[in-house]
Each structure stands twice: as structure tokens, then as C-alpha cells.
Amino acid sequence: MSCRITCNECELDQWLNDCVTAHKLAKEHEARYADHWITLRDPPEDDAVPGHVRQSGSG
User: Fold this and answer.
1) What domain of life does the native source organism fall in (predicted)?
2) Percentage, residues of the chain above pLDDT 70
3) What is the pTM of this model?
4) Are 40 and 5 in contact (CB under 8 A)?
């Protein structure tokens, strides 16, 4: 499942294809910039995010 990370202090606002990577990048960003806080969000319905297509599993 994809996740979105957004920083409260800088312009980091990114969709990532998987939440594991999103959590890792958020943790690294907060470690690098102690005064930054990252918000992680699961994707809303596909039609609520312009250009976002939810990837489904093969099966």
C-alpha cells in the first residue's frame, strides 16, 4: 500500500509506493532535522488524489 509523507517545516510532500519505505524516510528525515515532524498518511480513495493510482496485488 502506498503512503504519503509530509513535513511540517519544509516542502517535503511525497507519495511512496510502500509504507515501509515511507516510515524509513520519515525516520531518517526527522533524525537529520530535529525540529521537523513528518506526518504519514494512507491514501484516500483513488479519485481524491489527482494523478494517483493505487497499485493492486497480482492475484
Assistant:
1) Archaea
2) 73
3) 0.67
4) yes
Q: How many residues does the chain have?
A: 59
Cell of 49: 488524489
* b/e sequence 23-40, b meaning 16+ C-beta within 10 Å: eebbeebeeeeeeeebee
Write the single-letter amino acid at 2. S
Look at the block and give the residue holding cell 510502500.
18
User: How does residue 21 score in pLDDT terms, banded at 50, 70 and 90?
Assistant: very high
Q: Which ranges of 1-59 would DSSP assign to H, the alpha helix?
A: 19-32
Q: Quote the CA–CA distance of 28 and 9 in Å, as a whole number.
A: 15
Domain boundaries, the chain: 3-41
Nearest to 33 by CA among 3, 16, 12, 17: 12
